[in-house]
Amino acid sequence: MEEISGSPDRRPTDEPVALPSSASQSSDSEVNAGLEHHLSDATSFPFSSSLSSSTLPVGIIDIDETQGSSQHPRSHLLPHQVGKASHKQSNNVIVPRSSNLALTDGTPQRLASYSRDYFAYLREREREQQDRPLPDYMSRIQGGALTQDMRALLVDWLVTVCEECELMPSTLYHCVELIDRALSKLQVPKEQLQCMGCACLFIACKFEETTVPSLEEFTYMAAESFSKKQLTDLELRVVEALSFRLSTVTAYNFLSRFTLAAGSGPRETALVYYFSELSLLHYEFLGFSPSIRAAAALYLARQTLAVSNTDSARRAAEERNIWTPTIAFYTGYSPATTLPLQECVRLLRRAHAGVEYSPYEALKLKYGAPALLHVGDIACVEEKDLGATILNLN
């Protein structure tokens, strides 16, 4: 697959435009008042709760019971889309109209009494190997016919498609997970890789969206590089290869809870989501569980913002509190003792360092927008500034 065909714009134009090939190329306080918490679309699984706040260790803030109180800072909204018609502008503050957004304070959609059971269920699901992609499928299954660059080019194009079609962030994560799982089962010629991506996006839309793009729209976005029948045939192959086990656990499922535990402001939250989506581009992250990837994105975002602080006293204080007991409790990880987290943070930092020279620009453009506080333009932290625990120097 030398290049991805077609423009993701769903509005007809005279001629679809091909995306480039892989060979080329305000402060928190100002926005706090107008930003509401981003409620993950995966926080309402109906399990009964068997835990009460009295079971929490001493010093751990109960984020399920104290949301919005003075005991814990509120996490903030990350808009689903950037500059789309689904947003209203009022006094330079983004006000999304998505039904999946709600206040943290007493919102019934959050179902706080079930949340611990729900996230315990997610942890169990992410450990089920039959629903995880192989971390070495490029060599073991594809036999070298596909490359990491081909995969990255496909994911970069899908980011643009999801933005232009105003799809939910969860749809992108679900789609990429299905692609990797399918490629762990099926041998796919590089000529069919774009069709495979669209087939997986079509499936993901049926799970995550209220309105699904039509087959005509998918073939148009790919510049008619495959037919509707080829798309549905490949969709059926994917479904059968995965034995109809199409639900997934991704890093996205953990992001809103982790940022809530950290009390992340809008800029930090946007940076966490940027780093998490950046990991989707890179094949190397398949060896890490979704919750590890989400925790790594949170750690790197907090460390990056702390290091960028020009006030040395405040920087030192922030660095001491990168990973609080509350964060450790709700993520389930400690950077000092969790080797996969240390490795994932270092790898994610290198991925961020490579953005400046990468030909895959969709995420940088998306997160460089004003609505996401230009976090795509934040400079990469030096490896020496990651902290002794991450560098395993203790």
Automatic annotation (TrEMBL):
InterPro entries: Cyclin (IPR039361), Cyclin-like_dom (IPR013763), Cyclin-like_sf (IPR036915), Cyclin_C-dom (IPR004367), Cyclin_N (IPR006671). The keyword Cell division applies. Residues 156-240, 253-350 form the Cyclin-like domain. The keyword Calcium does not apply. GO terms for biological process: cell division. Pfam families: Cyclin_C, Cyclin_N. Keywords: Cell cycle, Cell division, Cyclin. Transmembrane segments: none annotated. Residues 249-381 form the Cyclin C-terminal domain. Residues 1-35 are annotated as: Disordered. Belongs to the cyclin family. This is Cyclin-like protein.
